[in-house]
Fold this protein.
Amino acid sequence: MKPNLSDDRSRAEIGYEPDGRWKNNLWVEVKSETHGFRDLRASFLGLAYWLTTVPNDHGLLVLVDSRIADKRLRQEWQFAKMALHPDVMRRLNVAVAKKHQYIGLPEELGDDFRLWLDQLVLEHSQSTRPRESFYVILEVLMHQWLLGQGPMTTDWIMKTVGCSYPTVRDALRRLDYCLQRHSDRKVELNRFPREEWARLVAVSDKVRSTTRFVDRSNQPRSPESLLRRLQRLGRNDLAVGGVWGARHYQPDIDLVGNPRLDLCLYCPDKRVDWSFVEQVDPALETTKLRDESPALVVHLIHRAVSLFQTNKDGLPWADPVECLLDLHEAHLETQARDFLNTFPAAKGGT
Amino acid sequence: MRVAKDVVKLVSPRTVLKEIADAIPIDCRENIIIIGSLAAGFYFFGDDAALMVRTKDADCLLSPRVRAVPAGIAITERLFEAKWTFRADQEWPEPGKSTTADERLPAVRLNPPGTADWFIELLTVPDSSSDRKQNWFRLHTSYGDFGLCSFRFLALVNYDPILTPLGIKIARPELMALANLLEHPEVRPEPMSGLIGGREIKRSSKDLGRVLAIARLSIRQNEDTLLAWPAQWQRAMQARFPKDWRDSARRAGAGLRRLLGQPNDLEEARHSCASGLLALMPPTVEQLRITGRRLLADAIEPLERLAVK
């Protein structure tokens, strides 16, 4: 019997979904440091299965820093051609990424796609994962410390971050110099982890997968206008950070003006829905140039629990640690220090 | 062979509007609404007499329809008496006669005394909301016979006009934009009769470009102003086309979407804007495209949604 794979249930039965989706009809699977044929074939098949559920869509497998030779890759492709249905093969492509260069990307996808793909590759890069987990754990510890939430169990950290016991254990070991361990095995920060924080600030772009958007209309909308439009969308996976967020936690803080809008986008499954950017302002385009002043800056929150604060009549607020990182990222160093010092736990110890 | 001439000149909206207001008989002023680029220019730059816009004509809409013919005759007679002159061209070298067929009558196009830089043109609203085609109404004057033209969507621009301090009314820019959107559900190939900025331009590109220029100037005044347009558009459409406003509203974005998808036509629209209302701040094609996408998101798509409710 021919399987009916055209509904969501069938997709769920496949037990797999590609890593990203570009403009509704291109599904992308990123495989980092895949050196063996078994993994390669599994990726081909997974993507091919997926394409049977979306008859008009295309698939792209991106091999990042793979040691599989080009000749062998072409051979594998020929085997796949013989084994898989022609309609699926017609919609399937493979590209190779080495040293931030792509080979085999369909040309018509353009620069916007490359920027998006860079981000996706970064998120799925093996080399960033351990470091990312450490900093996410640090952020969670900082969050509890700043808000005076008290000690926490390892299990709670695992569930909040969405990581394994060894990852939490290793992170706590690294932070031992600023931890207080309680007799019930709970832990909490006992002072500001200055050095690790400084490192986090230095790499926060990568850890938070920060994306900057600039105005291309020559009639830039104010951050207030962007925020009003965002509120109309009613999304609860987006939270306001930056200057607004800092003011939410500390209304009396001396922060004049909002040079830009900082948002945190909650995507624990790493699937990023960027549609809100066009809805908020079609004039916004991504930029990688640091000398361009962004109108909108978006940071991704991958941990299992968003830690957003919600109120009934507006958008959620990003947690104070994200707000603090936003101030650093915007080079508002004095304001960042002042904001940190408004929290009783941090007062005098930063 | 028709030789097209460049027809747009730099004029001051305030100066031209004042000249028209002074020339129109007082008892006809309530029947006249200035529309087109001059009205938009006055709305956006009227505070500054030194600011100029490029235009060729001052389109004057006579309404209500029942008063249009007597008001048109009175205004034409008065302007001729004040030494305004018939603007002759190859097709219409002189005013019509009583024997001239209605559809062959020239429009009332009159240059003010002492300048050929711009001219006044009289138009009117349709007879009824169901009147979909272009119509001509005869104006029999002692200076000859003229035709008064009506288009369906001109009915929108006499909705809730703005009374200027000069004692004469101008159409609301957002309603002129709506009329142009509805008049051009596609980019038609017919060119303008004259050159604009030295180039032949499709009428659709020019009129849809005007929509984008109005949107851009409106955003310049208030970044969120387009959000208020759908409600205003709905009120005007319900008042003017009570039976079939939803059909028209659902098609409001068709022409603009086509313009944005056709690079050559969008470039024509940009050129037209840069030779007209946006002469002081000419946008790039990409900037104009963004304005179009903002207009779609803030005003046209909400109107389309209102139409299906």
Observations:
- Residues 8-124 of chain A form a domain with the Rossmann fold fold (CATH 3.40.50).
- The interface with chain B takes residues 216-219, 221-222, 225, 228, 278-279, 281-283 of chain A (CB under 8 Å).
